[in-house]
């Protein structure tokens, strides 16, 4: 083999070593698990969630973004830079208020790991309702004329064994309000709420959300929507709005 050939072979060997070194120098985002089952919390509880993350690579792992797919979830990394061999965590708090039965949410973690630039974490569980609303879980008032006043009755049927009483009923948009509510159970073991809605003067759809605050630990709330449509001529208007 002549000197020229030997030089080429040596160069190829060096380049191969550099390529191998470069490949092994990448950070590796390694989660213990990408799913978390938060069990069966009571409606209104805030659930704490932890995903453990290890840098299994040979260079610093950088977490550039942690994004929760829903406003009901707050998520963050305990640290944004993780040295090789070290670990950190992605911590989240899921607010179960307004959710009942099976729930599934996601958190997306973006890193500088070329093989795992975006990792989707899933949280799931089964939220136990505090109470069931009758006759339905929302108030749809359909078409209303400006200034119309409607009073609807909602029955809350407890679904948990713990005793509780209603402290207050809050309104998010101040369109609806509770004119009356039983702070304690009636003879049938239920709670009665009378809700008043006064249609505003501007035509169009409206939406409000009522929050029934209880005295249970942590003051969990029972939320339900109230909506309708303000029209100048309720007879000729279209159908009722959808939730």
Task: Write up what this structure looks like.
With 243 residues, this protein is mostly beta strands. The chain contains 1 helix and 17 strands. The chain folds into 2 domains: 27-127, Immunoglobulins (Immunoglobulin-like, Sandwich), CATH 2.60.40.10; 131-230, Sandwich (Immunoglobulin-like), CATH 2.60.40. Strand 16 (204-214) and strand 17 form a beta hairpin. The model is unreliable at 234-243 (pLDDT under 50). It has one helix spanning 3-24; strands at residues 29-31, 35-37, 46-55, 61-68, 73-77, 81-82, 87-95, 101-111, 118-127, 131-134, 139-144, 149-158, 166-171, 176-181, 191-198, 204-214, 221-230.
Notable features of this structure?
243 residues, mainly beta, Immunoglobulin-like, 2 domains, 5-stranded mixed sheet, 4-stranded antiparallel sheet, 1 helix, 17 strands, disordered C terminus
């Amino acid at each position: 083999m002549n000197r020229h050939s030997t030089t080429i072979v040596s160069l190829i060997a060096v380049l191969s070593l550099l390529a191998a070194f470069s490949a092994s120098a990448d950070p590796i985002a390694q989660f213990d698990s990408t799913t978390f089952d938060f069990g069966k919390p009571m409606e209104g509880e805030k659930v704490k969630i932890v995903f453990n993350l290890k840098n299994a690579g040979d260079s610093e792992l950088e977490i550039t973004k942690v994004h929760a797919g829903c406003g009901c979830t707050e998520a963050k990394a305990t640290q944004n830079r993780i040295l090789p061999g070290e670990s950190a965590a992605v911590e989240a708090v899921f607010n179960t208020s307004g959710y009942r039965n099976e729930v599934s949410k996601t958190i997306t973690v973006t890193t500088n790991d070329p093989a795992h630039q975006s990792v989707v974490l899933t949280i799931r569980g089964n939220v136990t309702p505090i109470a069931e609303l009758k006759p339905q879980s929302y108030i749809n008032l359909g078409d209303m004329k400006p200034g119309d006043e409607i009073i609807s009755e909602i029955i809350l049927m407890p679904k948990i064994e713990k005793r509780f009483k209603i402290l207050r009923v809050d309104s998010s948009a101040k369109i609806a309000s509770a004119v009356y509510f039983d702070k304690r159970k009636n003879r049938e073991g239920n709670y009665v709420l009378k809700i008043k809605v006064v249609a505003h003067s501007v035509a169009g759809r409206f939406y409000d959300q009522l929050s029934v605050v209880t005295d249970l630990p942590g003051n969990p709330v029972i939320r339900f929507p109230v909506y309708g449509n303000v029209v100048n001529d309720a007879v000729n208007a279209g159908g009722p709005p959808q939730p």
